[in-house]
Amino acid sequence: MPVIRALSKVAKQALLAPACGCQPLTVAIRNISFSPRQVTPGSDASFHSVSFSETDHPKVLITGGLGQLGVGLAKLLRKRFGKNNVILSDIRKPPSNVFHSGPFIYSDILDYKNLREIVVNNRITWLVHYSALLSAVGESNVALARAVNITGLHNILDIAAEHGLRLFVPSTIGAFGPTSPRNPTPDLCVQRPRTIYGVSKVHAELMGEYYHHRYGLDFRCLRYPGIISADSQPGGGTTDYAVQIFHDAVKTGKFECNLKPDTRLPMMYIDDCLRATLEVMEAPTESLSMRTYNINAMSFTPEELAKEVQKQLPDLQVTYEIDAVRQAIAESWPMNFDDSNARNDWGWKHDYDLPELVQTMLNFIGSDSRIAQAN
Ligand SMILES: NC(=O)C1=CN([C@@H]2O[C@H](COP(=O)(O)OP(=O)(O)OC[C@H]3O[C@@H](n4cnc5c(N)ncnc54)[C@H](O)[C@@H]3O)[C@@H](O)[C@H]2O)C=CC1
Ligand SMILES: CC(=O)[C@H](N)C(=O)O
């Protein structure tokens, strides 16, 4: 009975707590070992809570780190916090340059004990959760997408709440759907996505915010646009065409686009995306009026992108062979993203517009292919 009474007191405190005042619940979790996932009886929950303030630098774990974004983020964070303070993890075997560039560890986000062991043994304080199946691959394997994007997220939330971690989970333009306002799309509006990817990301936004209010979890989330990078391949999304065009333009002079020429989507160069991630993770709590923000840089159609590339490579030939699944997804997504809250609250500002993006991508891929030809 006393335990039940204590629990109902905790629940009452939770409902009465101010949206940002998470202290009472955090204390309750520690005092009576009531956590989102029950802490083993007899264990001392406070033992796990290594707060960021105890160390000079955060100790960061990146899940799903071998995808398009993780390696670049590790590089940026290692520059800032030191090589050994940032651990990349994935279920795939890392290429040797990645393996030798800093700590890498196997981590399957569906294995809760494995996650807990990594967090405890390495005294992790920040968790960047990148593991996911993206929009197009998600539609071709819904069961796996549901497991990785939803069950996996539950593991991540519980680990982060139990161990007092600051947690970053990216969301996406894909978290909106055909009934959302598309031009522009604000932070708060109807979200009824039609992909398992989008559904799982809305779920992540809501669960993260719920854990923030309920358990005091320091949850931070950015909705990324389509991300464009030169030295890492996209993992099966709808916006992948905007990366592939550069590789094909340089290598073959021909590009077959799987979206219609007038399909407008928000996009961002990877350096802006990774910097935004670091900036929101470092933003003082008081500056965050929300926990999930849109971020934006530019918006273009395949035709506009092709024209910009043709300014540098006039012989590029672009044809269109529409992928019905990707086209339907793209037509349900925002055309322009309103990121004014991120700009006002924590000073978000993008560096790359379309001309700089194209120049940078062609310089990078061009010099890469010249090196390859010389070898
Ligand atoms: N790349 C983009 O344009 C955008 C990405 N995002 C989000 O950013 C995050 C990172 O995206 P990308 O790097 O592009 O994704 P990606 O698809 O390139 O990489 C995802 C990684 O997750 C790993 N993974 C899959 N199952 C796993 C499991 N059970 N345990 C651990 N790892 C597992 C994969 O091996 C892969 O390396 C994702 O959450 C994605 O939704 C959001 C919007 C745009
Ligand atoms: C915008 C995204 O989330 C991703 N690149 C995808 O196209 O699925």
From TrEMBL:
Q: Name one Pfam family in it.
A: Epimerase
In this protein, which residues make up the domain named NAD-dependent epimerase/dehydratase?
60-295
Q: Which EC number applies?
A: 1.1.1.103
Q: Which InterPro entries match?
A: Epimerase_deHydtase (IPR001509), NAD(P)-bd_dom_sf (IPR036291), NAD(P)_epim/dehydratase (IPR051225)
Give an example GO biological process.
L-threonine catabolic process
Q: In which pathway does it act?
A: Amino-acid degradation; L-threonine degradation via oxydo-reductase pathway; glycine from L-threonine: step 1/2
**What catalytic activity does the UniProt entry give for this protein?**
L-threonine + NAD(+) = (2S)-2-amino-3-oxobutanoate + NADH + H(+)
Task: Kindly list the GO molecular function terms attached to this UniProt entry.
Answer: L-threonine 3-dehydrogenase activity
Task: Explain the purpose of this protein.
Answer: Catalyzes the NAD(+)-dependent oxidation of L-threonine to 2-amino-3-ketobutyrate, mediating L-threonine catabolism.
Similarity field: Belongs to the NAD(P)-dependent epimerase/dehydratase family.
The protein's name is L-threonine 3-dehydrogenase, mitochondrial
